[in-house]
Specification:
Order of helices and strands: EHHEEHEEEHEEEEEHHHHHEEEHEHH
Structural class: alpha+beta
Oligomer: single chain
Radius of gyration: 25 Å
Number of strands: 15
Number of domains: 3
Strand content: 15-25%
Protein backbone atom coordinates (compact mmCIF):
# COMPACT_ATOMS: atom_id res chain seq x y z
CA UNK A 1 0.00 0.00 0.00
CA UNK A 2 1.49 3.39 -0.95
CA UNK A 3 1.94 6.12 1.66
CA UNK A 4 -1.39 7.92 1.81
CA UNK A 5 -0.39 10.40 4.52
CA UNK A 6 0.05 13.23 2.03
CA UNK A 7 -3.55 13.03 0.80
CA UNK A 8 -5.28 16.19 1.98
CA UNK A 9 -2.08 17.53 3.58
CA UNK A 10 -2.68 20.98 2.09
CA UNK A 11 -6.49 20.96 2.52
CA UNK A 12 -7.20 20.06 6.16
CA UNK A 13 -7.36 16.33 5.52
CA UNK A 14 -9.88 16.48 2.67
CA UNK A 15 -9.00 15.23 -0.81
CA UNK A 16 -10.46 14.43 -4.21
CA UNK A 17 -10.79 11.16 -6.06
CA UNK A 18 -8.45 12.42 -8.76
CA UNK A 19 -5.66 12.98 -6.22
CA UNK A 20 -6.31 9.56 -4.71
CA UNK A 21 -6.08 7.96 -8.16
CA UNK A 22 -2.50 9.17 -8.39
CA UNK A 23 -1.68 6.65 -5.65
CA UNK A 24 -4.38 4.00 -5.82
CA UNK A 25 -6.48 2.08 -8.31
CA UNK A 26 -10.21 2.78 -8.45
CA UNK A 27 -11.01 -0.60 -6.89
CA UNK A 28 -8.71 0.09 -3.94
CA UNK A 29 -10.45 3.42 -3.31
CA UNK A 30 -13.82 1.68 -3.36
CA UNK A 31 -12.62 -0.83 -0.75
CA UNK A 32 -11.40 1.95 1.56
CA UNK A 33 -14.80 3.63 1.31
CA UNK A 34 -16.78 0.42 1.69
CA UNK A 35 -14.87 -0.63 4.80
CA UNK A 36 -15.23 2.82 6.42
CA UNK A 37 -11.53 3.68 6.34
CA UNK A 38 -12.50 6.67 4.17
CA UNK A 39 -15.80 8.54 4.22
CA UNK A 40 -17.42 10.29 1.27
CA UNK A 41 -18.25 13.95 1.95
CA UNK A 42 -19.47 14.73 -1.55
CA UNK A 43 -19.25 12.82 -4.77
CA UNK A 44 -15.55 12.33 -5.45
CA UNK A 45 -14.43 14.02 -2.20
CA UNK A 46 -13.13 12.07 0.81
CA UNK A 47 -11.66 12.28 4.29
CA UNK A 48 -10.65 9.69 6.86
CA UNK A 49 -13.52 7.76 8.39
CA UNK A 50 -14.57 7.98 12.01
CA UNK A 51 -14.55 11.78 12.23
CA UNK A 52 -17.21 14.45 11.96
CA UNK A 53 -15.93 17.12 9.55
CA UNK A 54 -15.42 20.56 11.03
CA UNK A 55 -17.23 23.48 9.35
CA UNK A 56 -14.02 24.35 7.51
CA UNK A 57 -13.43 20.77 6.35
CA UNK A 58 -17.04 20.64 5.18
CA UNK A 59 -16.55 23.92 3.28
CA UNK A 60 -13.36 22.65 1.65
CA UNK A 61 -15.19 19.51 0.58
CA UNK A 62 -18.00 21.58 -0.95
CA UNK A 63 -15.53 23.75 -2.87
CA UNK A 64 -13.64 20.69 -4.14
CA UNK A 65 -16.93 19.08 -5.21
CA UNK A 66 -17.70 22.25 -7.18
CA UNK A 67 -14.44 22.01 -9.14
CA UNK A 68 -12.24 24.19 -6.96
CA UNK A 69 -9.25 21.84 -6.68
CA UNK A 70 -5.97 23.49 -7.62
CA UNK A 71 -7.37 26.99 -7.92
CA UNK A 72 -6.72 29.78 -8.79
CA UNK A 73 -6.35 28.77 -12.43
CA UNK A 74 -4.28 30.75 -14.96
CA UNK A 75 -6.28 32.17 -17.86
CA UNK A 76 -5.42 34.04 -21.04
CA UNK A 77 -2.07 34.88 -22.52
CA UNK A 78 0.84 36.14 -20.38
CA UNK A 79 1.11 39.90 -19.93
CA UNK A 80 3.72 41.12 -22.43
CA UNK A 81 5.41 43.32 -19.82
CA UNK A 82 5.36 41.14 -16.70
CA UNK A 83 5.01 37.71 -18.28
CA UNK A 84 2.30 36.91 -15.75
CA UNK A 85 -1.05 35.41 -16.58
CA UNK A 86 -4.35 36.36 -15.01
CA UNK A 87 -5.88 33.84 -12.64
CA UNK A 88 -9.45 33.06 -11.75
CA UNK A 89 -11.38 31.08 -9.18
CA UNK A 90 -13.93 28.44 -9.98
CA UNK A 91 -15.59 27.97 -6.59
CA UNK A 92 -15.70 29.43 -3.08
CA UNK A 93 -17.55 28.70 0.15
CA UNK A 94 -20.75 30.75 0.26
CA UNK A 95 -24.00 31.31 2.14
CA UNK A 96 -24.66 28.98 5.05
CA UNK A 97 -21.42 27.07 4.48
CA UNK A 98 -19.33 30.23 4.79
CA UNK A 99 -21.38 31.40 7.78
CA UNK A 100 -20.52 28.24 9.69
CA UNK A 101 -16.80 28.70 9.02
CA UNK A 102 -16.96 32.25 10.37
CA UNK A 103 -18.78 30.91 13.41
CA UNK A 104 -22.06 32.73 12.74
CA UNK A 105 -24.87 31.10 14.75
CA UNK A 106 -27.44 29.60 12.38
CA UNK A 107 -30.42 29.09 14.65
CA UNK A 108 -32.23 26.82 12.20
CA UNK A 109 -29.29 24.46 11.65
CA UNK A 110 -30.46 22.16 14.44
CA UNK A 111 -33.29 23.52 16.56
CA UNK A 112 -34.75 21.19 19.20
CA UNK A 113 -37.80 23.44 19.57
CA UNK A 114 -38.89 23.79 15.96
CA UNK A 115 -37.26 20.72 14.46
CA UNK A 116 -35.49 22.88 11.87
CA UNK A 117 -32.61 20.96 10.30
CA UNK A 118 -30.87 23.29 7.88
CA UNK A 119 -27.52 21.81 8.87
CA UNK A 120 -27.95 19.51 5.88
CA UNK A 121 -27.69 22.46 3.47
CA UNK A 122 -24.41 23.71 1.97
CA UNK A 123 -23.69 26.50 -0.50
CA UNK A 124 -20.87 27.37 -2.88
CA UNK A 125 -20.35 30.27 -5.26
CA UNK A 126 -19.34 29.16 -8.74
CA UNK A 127 -18.35 30.94 -11.93
CA UNK A 128 -20.30 28.67 -14.26
CA UNK A 129 -23.49 26.58 -14.25
CA UNK A 130 -23.27 23.60 -11.94
CA UNK A 131 -25.91 21.07 -10.97
CA UNK A 132 -27.03 20.79 -7.39
CA UNK A 133 -25.45 17.77 -5.72
CA UNK A 134 -26.98 15.59 -3.03
CA UNK A 135 -25.48 12.87 -0.93
CA UNK A 136 -27.33 10.86 1.69
CA UNK A 137 -29.18 13.53 3.69
CA UNK A 138 -27.15 16.57 2.55
CA UNK A 139 -27.61 19.02 -0.31
CA UNK A 140 -24.98 21.21 -1.97
CA UNK A 141 -26.41 24.18 -3.86
CA UNK A 142 -24.24 26.23 -6.26
CA UNK A 143 -24.84 29.96 -6.75
CA UNK A 144 -23.59 31.60 -9.92
CA UNK A 145 -22.03 34.85 -8.73
CA UNK A 146 -19.03 36.91 -9.87
CA UNK A 147 -16.06 35.69 -7.83
CA UNK A 148 -14.44 39.08 -7.28
CA UNK A 149 -11.38 39.05 -5.01
CA UNK A 150 -12.84 41.95 -3.04
CA UNK A 151 -15.61 39.63 -1.83
CA UNK A 152 -13.36 36.70 -0.98
CA UNK A 153 -10.80 35.71 1.64
CA UNK A 154 -8.25 32.92 1.47
CA UNK A 155 -7.86 31.19 4.81
CA UNK A 156 -4.62 29.53 5.98
CA UNK A 157 -6.12 26.16 5.03
CA UNK A 158 -6.26 27.34 1.42
CA UNK A 159 -10.05 27.62 1.47
CA UNK A 160 -11.49 30.45 -0.61
CA UNK A 161 -14.51 31.83 1.21
CA UNK A 162 -16.75 34.86 1.03
CA UNK A 163 -15.75 37.62 3.44
CA UNK A 164 -17.85 38.04 6.60
CA UNK A 165 -19.64 41.02 5.05
CA UNK A 166 -20.30 39.24 1.76
CA UNK A 167 -21.42 36.14 3.65
CA UNK A 168 -24.08 38.14 5.46
CA UNK A 169 -25.35 39.73 2.25
CA UNK A 170 -25.52 36.28 0.64
CA UNK A 171 -27.40 34.90 3.67
CA UNK A 172 -29.99 37.68 3.38
CA UNK A 173 -31.64 35.66 0.63
CA UNK A 174 -31.33 32.34 2.47
CA UNK A 175 -32.20 32.87 6.14
CA UNK A 176 -35.32 33.91 7.98
CA UNK A 177 -35.41 37.43 9.42
CA UNK A 178 -34.70 36.20 12.96
CA UNK A 179 -31.83 33.96 11.85
CA UNK A 180 -30.26 36.76 9.81
CA UNK A 181 -30.41 39.20 12.73
CA UNK A 182 -28.78 36.59 14.98
CA UNK A 183 -25.93 36.20 12.48
CA UNK A 184 -25.51 39.97 12.10
CA UNK A 185 -25.53 40.51 15.87
CA UNK A 186 -22.75 37.92 16.21
CA UNK A 187 -20.67 39.53 13.47
CA UNK A 188 -21.06 42.96 15.06
CA UNK A 189 -20.33 41.71 18.57
CA UNK A 190 -17.12 40.01 17.44
CA UNK A 191 -16.17 42.97 15.21
CA UNK A 192 -16.11 40.88 12.05
CA UNK A 193 -18.09 43.64 10.32
CA UNK A 194 -19.08 47.19 11.18
CA UNK A 195 -22.55 48.66 11.20
CA UNK A 196 -21.43 51.29 8.68
CA UNK A 197 -20.25 48.60 6.27
CA UNK A 198 -23.53 46.72 6.67
CA UNK A 199 -25.61 49.85 6.07
CA UNK A 200 -23.51 50.67 3.01
CA UNK A 201 -23.90 47.14 1.67
CA UNK A 202 -27.67 47.23 2.25
CA UNK A 203 -27.97 50.57 0.46
CA UNK A 204 -25.91 49.29 -2.44
CA UNK A 205 -28.09 46.25 -3.03
CA UNK A 206 -31.28 48.08 -3.95
CA UNK A 207 -33.32 46.04 -6.37
CA UNK A 208 -31.26 42.89 -5.85
CA UNK A 209 -32.51 39.63 -4.30
CA UNK A 210 -32.40 39.71 -0.53
CA UNK A 211 -31.98 43.50 -0.35
CA UNK A 212 -35.21 44.23 1.62
CA UNK A 213 -34.40 41.40 4.04
CA UNK A 214 -30.89 42.74 4.59
CA UNK A 215 -32.10 46.30 5.22
CA UNK A 216 -34.75 45.08 7.65
CA UNK A 217 -32.24 42.96 9.58
CA UNK A 218 -29.58 45.69 9.75
CA UNK A 219 -32.18 48.15 11.04
CA UNK A 220 -32.81 46.07 14.18
CA UNK A 221 -29.34 44.60 14.71
CA UNK A 222 -27.47 45.24 17.94
CA UNK A 223 -23.92 44.04 18.54
CA UNK A 224 -24.36 44.05 22.31
CA UNK A 225 -26.20 40.72 22.15
CA UNK A 226 -23.98 37.88 23.35
CA UNK A 227 -26.07 34.95 22.12
CA UNK A 228 -28.83 34.11 19.62
CA UNK A 229 -31.25 33.68 22.54
CA UNK A 230 -30.59 37.28 23.58
CA UNK A 231 -31.20 38.46 20.03
CA UNK A 232 -34.50 36.56 19.76
CA UNK A 233 -35.64 37.91 23.13
CA UNK A 234 -34.86 41.46 22.07
CA UNK A 235 -36.72 41.07 18.78
CA UNK A 236 -39.81 39.85 20.63
CA UNK A 237 -39.90 42.25 23.58
CA UNK A 238 -38.49 45.57 22.41
CA UNK A 239 -41.47 46.43 20.16
CA UNK A 240 -43.79 46.25 23.21
CA UNK A 241 -41.35 47.22 26.00
CA UNK A 242 -39.08 49.84 24.41
CA UNK A 243 -37.37 50.73 27.71
CA UNK A 244 -35.60 47.38 27.84
CA UNK A 245 -31.86 47.71 27.18
CA UNK A 246 -29.36 44.98 26.30
CA UNK A 247 -26.63 44.03 28.78
CA UNK A 248 -27.80 46.06 31.80
CA UNK A 249 -25.31 45.83 34.68
CA UNK A 250 -26.22 45.86 38.37
CA UNK A 251 -23.63 46.95 40.97
CA UNK A 252 -23.75 46.95 44.76
CA UNK A 253 -22.88 49.87 47.01
CA UNK A 254 -19.18 49.08 46.71
CA UNK A 255 -19.42 49.13 42.88
CA UNK A 256 -18.95 45.39 42.63
CA UNK A 257 -20.74 43.78 39.68
CA UNK A 258 -23.66 41.70 40.95
CA UNK A 259 -25.25 40.74 37.63
CA UNK A 260 -25.54 41.61 33.98
CA UNK A 261 -29.01 41.10 32.54
CA UNK A 262 -29.54 40.08 28.93
CA UNK A 263 -32.23 42.79 28.87
CA UNK A 264 -33.17 45.18 31.62
CA UNK A 265 -35.51 48.07 32.39
CA UNK A 266 -33.78 50.24 34.99
CA UNK A 267 -36.93 52.25 35.84
CA UNK A 268 -39.02 49.30 37.01
CA UNK A 269 -36.03 47.09 37.85
CA UNK A 270 -36.99 44.24 35.57
CA UNK A 271 -34.33 41.92 34.21
CA UNK A 272 -34.89 39.36 31.46
CA UNK A 273 -32.59 36.35 31.08
CA UNK A 274 -32.75 34.07 28.02
CA UNK A 275 -31.68 30.43 27.95
CA UNK A 276 -30.02 29.03 24.84
CA UNK A 277 -30.94 25.97 22.79
CA UNK A 278 -29.62 23.56 25.39
CA UNK A 279 -30.90 25.79 28.27
CA UNK A 280 -29.96 25.70 31.95
CA UNK A 281 -31.81 22.51 32.76
CA UNK A 282 -28.91 20.94 34.66
CA UNK A 283 -29.33 20.96 38.44
CA UNK A 284 -26.10 22.86 38.99
CA UNK A 285 -27.10 25.62 36.55
CA UNK A 286 -30.62 25.88 38.00
CA UNK A 287 -29.19 26.33 41.50
CA UNK A 288 -26.76 28.95 40.20
CA UNK A 289 -29.59 30.86 38.50
CA UNK A 290 -31.64 30.82 41.70
CA UNK A 291 -28.73 32.16 43.75
CA UNK A 292 -28.25 34.92 41.23
CA UNK A 293 -31.93 35.82 41.30
CA UNK A 294 -31.87 36.02 45.09
CA UNK A 295 -28.85 38.32 44.91
CA UNK A 296 -30.48 40.67 42.42
CA UNK A 297 -33.78 40.50 44.32
CA UNK A 298 -32.11 42.03 47.36
CA UNK A 299 -31.55 45.12 45.23
CA UNK A 300 -35.20 45.28 44.22
CA UNK A 301 -34.84 43.62 40.83
CA UNK A 302 -37.27 41.05 39.44
CA UNK A 303 -35.87 38.51 36.98
CA UNK A 304 -37.96 36.87 34.28
CA UNK A 305 -36.34 33.83 32.67
CA UNK A 306 -37.36 32.77 29.18
CA UNK A 307 -36.63 29.43 27.54
CA UNK A 308 -35.60 28.60 24.01
CA UNK A 309 -38.88 26.75 23.49
CA UNK A 310 -40.83 29.88 24.45
CA UNK A 311 -38.71 32.00 22.11
CA UNK A 312 -39.34 29.67 19.19
CA UNK A 313 -42.78 28.17 19.79
CA UNK A 314 -44.68 30.23 22.36
CA UNK A 315 -43.83 33.81 21.43
CA UNK A 316 -47.29 35.31 22.05
CA UNK A 317 -47.64 33.75 25.50
CA UNK A 318 -44.11 34.82 26.38
CA UNK A 319 -44.74 38.42 25.40
CA UNK A 320 -47.98 38.50 27.40
CA UNK A 321 -46.27 37.14 30.49
CA UNK A 322 -43.38 39.60 30.46
CA UNK A 323 -45.66 42.54 29.64
CA UNK A 324 -47.90 41.63 32.59
CA UNK A 325 -44.92 41.43 34.95
CA UNK A 326 -43.64 44.76 33.65
CA UNK A 327 -47.05 46.39 34.12
CA UNK A 328 -47.26 45.13 37.70
CA UNK A 329 -43.82 46.50 38.52
CA UNK A 330 -44.63 49.82 36.89
CA UNK A 331 -47.87 50.12 38.90
CA UNK A 332 -45.94 49.51 42.11
CA UNK A 333 -43.52 52.35 41.40
CA UNK A 334 -43.92 55.39 43.67
CA UNK A 335 -45.39 58.42 41.88
CA UNK A 336 -42.88 60.83 40.42
CA UNK A 337 -42.12 63.81 42.62
Amino acid sequence: MPDLSLLGADSLGVWTRSSALSLLRAGEIDVLVRTGVWQVLWRGVYMDGGFDPTPEQRAIAAVLAAGGAGQPFPVGAPDPETGRRRVRLRAAAWGRTAARVWGFPLIDDDDPATGAAEHVLDHVAVDRPLARQSFADRILTPHEVPLGRRDLVRRPSGLWISSPLRTLTACSGLLTHEALVCAIDFALHHELVSLVDLETAAAGRLGRPGAPALRAAVAVADGRAESPAETLTRLLLLPVLPDLEPQVELYDEGMRLIARFDLGDRRVRLGVEADGKRNHAGGQMVAKDRRRDRSTGRFGWTTERVTWFELRRQQAALVRRVVEVHAGLAAAQPPAA
